[in-house]
Task: inverse folding
């Protein structure tokens, strides 16, 4: 039940619309997209260029976009090569069941809840990245939002307290973005909604993602059954790993977030080590997987801009890509969680564009955390760079050391999921 001063029954948005964006002729839009794709792929084999342009355009136009009020900040941003400046990207994972019934009856079991809500923050100078996961059962206040079923009519009222995963069905994607903006104090211009098959397609596009398991995991709810050891997951197996809650940690959504962070850290290592983000053909495969399985905001309808964001991550030091679970504490009745005092420190770091660091003991000592890979080799420090001793080196931004109750990991760390013993 959603709490608030003036409640309405939750609605399922057909196409959330927030704000007024300029409309362009279809022919001109398609031509711009095709030209951008061809430019990005020009260094790849010429035989695939024409196909790629047409194929990605078809993927983009297959789904209507979602709209964000703050996406106007991206106007006139170059769309070839790595993007300039920083960015906040909102990723929402919807539990809407696919029409084929593979995950249950889409009419009976779909509530269109945002079971996964993540904020990707890329720094202005591209030296650090933070990925913040917001627990689905966290109570938040929701600002007044345009009604996705009647954008020109009366807005939906603000809510004093609602669980995070109810916001998508209440006010659409734009309302989720506004809620995160209000919570963190940052501006979110772009984002998208991914459904079940999107994760499966992405893991396959990169050739599999390695995950580490220290104890056998058995979860009949998602069909995940993994022996101890390292596994390369693709397709539906990868999706099951990201969905499992009953099989890992303490059986809660917080445990699931910790496992998701190990997966995403491994995905980032895979993409950098295999040269995926610098290979136009591999980058095309990823763009195809994303565009075919996500509903993206207006500003990302140009595939080249999506590639530009990906290319920005190519050279970021893995130790400076940090996955953070938004700090929370349980309510008295343990029916959900609420933001902890330390969330203000994380919010301030995001607002000031400062890199953050996780306390090494925080995640391992948490009841819902992951564990260090027992087989991992200690990292070898890089040799100091040589060159002109008089050359001026730009000072690194001061790192915000997060309190001990904030869990997470960097992309350089190999952590393992532990089975739920409950």
Result:
């Amino acid at each position: 039940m959603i709490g608030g001063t003036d409640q309405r029954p939750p609605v399922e948005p057909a196409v959330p619309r927030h704000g007024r964006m300029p409309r362009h002729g279809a022919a001109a839009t398609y031509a711009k997209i095709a030209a951008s794709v061809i430019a990005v792929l020009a260094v790849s084999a010429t035989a695939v260029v024409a196909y790629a342009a047409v194929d990605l355009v078809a993927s983009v136009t297959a789904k209507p976009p979602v709209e964000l009020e703050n996406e106007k900040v991206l106007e006139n941003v170059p769309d070839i090569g790595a993007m300039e400046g920083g960015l906040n990207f909102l990723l929402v994972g919807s539990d809407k069941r696919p029409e084929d019934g593979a995950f249950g009856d889409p009419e009976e079991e779909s509530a269109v809840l945002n079971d996964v809500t993540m904020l990707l923050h890329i720094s202005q100078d591209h030296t650090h990245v933070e990925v913040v996961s917001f627990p689905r059962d966290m109570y938040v206040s929701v600002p007044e939002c345009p009604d996705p079923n009647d954008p020109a009519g009366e807005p939906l009222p603000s809510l004093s307290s609602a669980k995070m995963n109810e916001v998508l069905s209440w006010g659409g994607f734009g309302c989720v973005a506004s809620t995160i903006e209000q919570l963190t104090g940052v501006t979110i211009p772009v984002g998208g909604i991914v459904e079940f098959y999107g994760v499966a397609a992405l893991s396959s596009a990169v050739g599999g993602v390695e995950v580490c398991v220290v104890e056998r995991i058995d979860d009949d709810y998602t069909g995940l059954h993994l022996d101890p050891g390292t596994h390369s997951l693709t397709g539906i197996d990868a999706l099951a790993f990201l969905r499992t809650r009953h099989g890992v940690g303490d059986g809660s959504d917080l445990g699931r977030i910790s496992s998701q962070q190990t997966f995403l850290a491994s995905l980032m290592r895979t993409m950098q080590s295999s040269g995926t983000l610098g290979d136009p053909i591999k980058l095309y495969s990823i763009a195809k997987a994303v565009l075919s399985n996500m509903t993206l905001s207006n500003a990302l309808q140009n595939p080249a801009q999506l590639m530009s964001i990906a290319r920005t991550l190519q050279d970021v030091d893995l130790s400076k890509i940090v996955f953070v679970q938004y700090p929370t504490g349980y309510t008295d009745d343990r029916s959900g969680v609420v933001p902890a005092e330390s969330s203000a420190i994380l919010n301030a770091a995001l607002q000031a564009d400062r890199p953050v660091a996780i306390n090494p003991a925080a995640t391992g000592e948490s009841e819902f955390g992951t564990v260090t890979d027992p087989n991992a080799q200690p990292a070898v420090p890089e040799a100091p760079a040589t060159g002109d001793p008089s050359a001026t080196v730009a000072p690194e931004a001061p790192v915000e050391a997060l309190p001990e109750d904030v869990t997470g990991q960097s992309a350089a760390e190999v952590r393992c999921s532990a089975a739920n013993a409950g």
In short: The chain has eleven helices and 19 strands. The chain has one domain: 26-377+399-417.
